[in-house]
# Entry
Amino acid sequence: MISGPGGVGKGTVVTRLREHLPDLELSRSWTTRDRRPGEDADAYVFVDRDRFVAHRDRGGFLEWNELPSNGQLYGTPVPDGSLADELLLEIELNGARQVKQRFPDAVLIFVVPPSTEDLERRLRGRGDDEESVVRRMRLGLQELAEGPALADHIVVNDEADRAAAEVADIIGSRRKRRADSGA
Ligand code: 5GP
# Structure
């Protein structure tokens, strides 16, 4: 799992990471939020609330959460393949916590900004109104306080290419460790 506060640049790190590790399988989340202008149609499975809740109630998600910053639901569908296979999830911290509880072997890479000022600058750079910047910043600071205790690795996103290379190294050494242990 890759997690980290909103605005830290997880999405860019994951895009670059896939250039390092093209065979890495990425989970496609479901969400009730609207697709953003210019956003890939397959960035998420975009559904309405009724469909999301029905899928959740059938046990269709590994984890799900309602994001306090926008009131929308997000969830990781139960994968088709074996759960022992490798799968990358890009999710927020509450979801990562649920996955860790269900699958203690799951690895959490927590992406942090070089400083809280940097995070605020990035959030402001998105052009959102002041109220939502303040709300996201408050949530981000909470995630920054809670994340390290849950994380297996912490990566500073000072530069997306460098951070992606570090994440690729972590995954490489985890794969090696897993292969050596015969798991
Ligand atoms: P956005 O709406 O900006 O795409 O995503 C908002 C937040 O939801 C991000 O922190 C993202 O990592 C998180 N997120 C995306 N998919 C999932 C998911 O399936 N489960 C959870 N818990 N969080 C998700």
Q: What stands out?
A: The chain has a mean pLDDT of 94.
